Each structure stands twice: as C-alpha cells, then as structure tokens.
Amino acid sequence: MRVLVVEDEPKMAGLLRRGLAEEGYAVDVAADGADGFAAAMSRSYDAVVLDVMLPELSGFEVCRRLRSSEVWVPVLMLTARAAVSDRIAGLDDGADDYLTKPFHLKELFARLRALTRRGPVPRPTQLTAGDLRVDPSSQRCWRGDVEVVLTAKEYALLEAFLRRPGAVLTREVLLEHCWDFAYESRSNVVDVHIRALRDKIDRRFGVRSLETVRGTGYRLRADGGRADAGQR
CA 48, CA 32: separation in Å to the nearest integer? Predict the structure, then answer.
C-alpha cells in the first residue's frame, strides 16, 4: 500500500516515513500543502496523512480541494491543536479521521489500517435542483454563482428538500428531520423557517421553487424554480 505523508516538520516527517516503511507501506513525503495537493492529484494513494499547519496551503485547504476535485482517498489529519472546533473543521472539510499530536505511532497505524480497509468511498459533492445547490460537507448553499447564507435550521430544511426534489414533505416529516422531540407537530416553527428560507433562495432571485401544498406540506421543484414575482 502507498501512503502520502504531508508534513513540513522534518523530524516528524522522517519519523512517519520510517515507521510506515517498517509497517510495509510505500511512503511518499511532501513538505508543504501545495506539493501535497499536487501529489495526491497526480498519483493514486491508499491513504493520505495530512498535517494541518502547513506552508503554502493548510491541511484544511488541501483536504477541501481534494474533495472538491472528487478525490476520495482516505485522509487522516494530524494537528497539535486539541480544540474541538479544529477537529470539527477538519472533518467538515472532508477528512476521514483526526489525530492530535503527540500521538503513539501504533495508534496512527491502527487508524490507517481502519481507513484503508474502508477504502475510498465516493460521496456526492453537491445536491442540486436546477441552479440551486448545496454542499453537504460544508453546509453551504448557492443559487447559480451567488452564495446564499443560511442558518443551521434553514440549511437542514433545504437539504431535506434537495434529497427528495419534487416530493411533498409534510410538516411532521420536516419536524422529525430538522428538530428534536421538544417541538409538537402543531407548532408553526416549520412555516416560520420556510418563509425565511423562501426569502433567501427564491424571492431574492425572483423565482419560485419552494411550493406550498395546501393541507399537506411543502415541495421543492425538481427544476430549481421558475420566474414568479407573485409568490406567497
């Protein structure tokens, strides 16, 4: 198996190279993010061990670019940062696992074995309906080339619709998908958030994609919407 190590600290890079080689891996080493990204794009690897703090491109950016390029090689991120927010950022950018320095080499080997057994798993980079699209990994949304900033609940609603474009989703289904059990089905919380979502993805662009199905719920048009200045 061939592994790419992207690590700018020479001592750590050497330690990883020797340890992985002793475990039977073929190892390539890149000393900065730009070279690491280029290597991962030009050659097939069974896994990438990727430091976060790198010259040229950060590990976060390298991982984000790989996933945007539909390269699904398993990525194990390494960092000296122990903050939960950093671990979340790495995973949201497409990393498969996260290891905080200092670590034991045996743990790194075990995590790599788990990742390589799983292998690269193709994941959809985006969900779309016409020119409306979201990126599930980063929870970002666009209408055409314009990014639309959504709250967490607005995004959760939109993703639910985009996973079933053209289907009618009842208020109960949306509550179950996007809220916890503290909310009751008779609450108008869904309607309030749908109105806010419409303002951002439809009215702002003069289109109608999110339709009300009277007495039932809501539906997102599979074509992403049509020009309609008279939405309700």
Answer: 13
